[in-house]
Amino acid sequence: MRSRFRLCDRFCISDAIASVLVMRSLLYCLCDHFCIAYAIASVLLMRSLLYCLCDRFCIAYAITFVLLMRSLLYCLCDRFCIAYAIASVLVMLNPNTKSV
Predict the structure, then answer these.
(1) Residue 4 located in a structural domain
(2) Mean pLDDT throughout 52-59?
(3) pTM of the entire predicted model
């Protein structure tokens, strides 16, 4: 990794998440949105522990960016699924938020 402890820029974060998810989807056929949401949650939870990325707006932006990129590649363009995935991850990241 380039600068291990300075990856706090939203574009770098979304690019890293997109790279991981595209690699995982090619290797393990993760084209189901529940698996995608789980993969995004796993990546963001790991990154938030390492880099203190606990700002919900940055997280939502990164997830949206990844899902939009995936929708272009894998036809995952259903807005309700995107909203559900974002809400699921945000609830996991912040237990104080209301459930989906």
Answers:
(1) no
(2) 53
(3) 0.26
